[in-house]
Hints:
Blueprint lengths: L8 H19 L1 E4 L8 E4 H4 L10 H10 L14 E3 L4 H7 L6 H8 L13 E8 L2 E8 L9 E6 L7 H22 L9 H5 L5 E6 L10 H15 L19 H5 L1 H15 L1 E2 L4 H6 L3 E3 L43 E2 L2
Parallel strand pairs: 1-9, 3-4, 6-7
Antiparallel strand pairs: 1-2, 3-10, 4-5, 5-6, 8-9
Amino acid sequence: MVQEVVLLDGDARHSESADKITNKRDAMKIYYPSSEHPQSVELSHDDIKCLEPESLLSSPIMNFYIMYLQQPMSSISIPKGKCHIFNTYFFSKLEALISKVDKASYFLKLRRWWKGIDIFRKAYILFPVHADTHWSLVIICMPSKEDQSGLIILHLDSLKFHRSRHIFSVVERFLKEEWTYLNKNGSLEECPIQEMVWKNLPRKIEKKPIAVPQQENEYDCGLFVLYYMQRFIEQAPERLHKKDLSMFGKRWFQPEEASALRTKIQSVLLQLFHEAKPNNNTPEQQTTGPSLVEAKSKNNLMEPTVPEQPVEGSSAKLASPNHLDGSSIQPTSFEHPLECS
């Protein structure tokens, strides 16, 4: 039996009003930590959908939490200058170097990603790897000036799905190209690591796939990468030595701890959208397009991050200078890596 439903005028107006509020909320975009930040991440309500149960994380969400971890109010305390974090698009740029005919020219453009940063003076370089709808993590460990051992590249994978050998090859090429560039151009005021290690750096790079807690489903890989980052930043020594690799292992943490990040990140983002303030600097955008707001939290939890192309379906846009193939693109908010400060 089908019943006819009759809306009174008051009900109709209430329904239309509710729809407008819902549409306005869905169209709202926030910038984390702010629109002025050079690495600002643009996020919409659509981006939060990938935090629903059994969903794969997108690049905007990955980059948001990477930035979130570095904020003053975060539970993570990262010593200034200790590490450098590239965004989710960095590895694909490194990978593209292999197929370029004019590798030298491409590498010069690629160096914009770490402009002003001496990567060999950092203790750690971190960045996610995305391929075949799966996330894993690379950590480059630099030796101290007193250490005669070489660099160590770590690969952490919650499904052992990515080919570590290929990833090591890409990262090793990146380090050798930068080493060659610095030596050829005399860009070093002083040797960033032990002199003999530096002179023989191409032969002093060790690669290690790391045994880590594994995900128990097919969709939490992004959460595990973020939790690997978080735990490593919390626990890593000032400089990592081979003996310190014992910090990892299958029992490093319980898998449920990584999976629990889904609700935590969702909660943080919903709070940001709730507390977001309209950006009065863009009145034309507010009237003709999506509502653009500043992600200013009451407890100062924010400061931005962003991706360059959505990974698993997202509306976030990035700001980056010139495209690496020479063409120009709209700037993307994760052109430069994240600085742990």
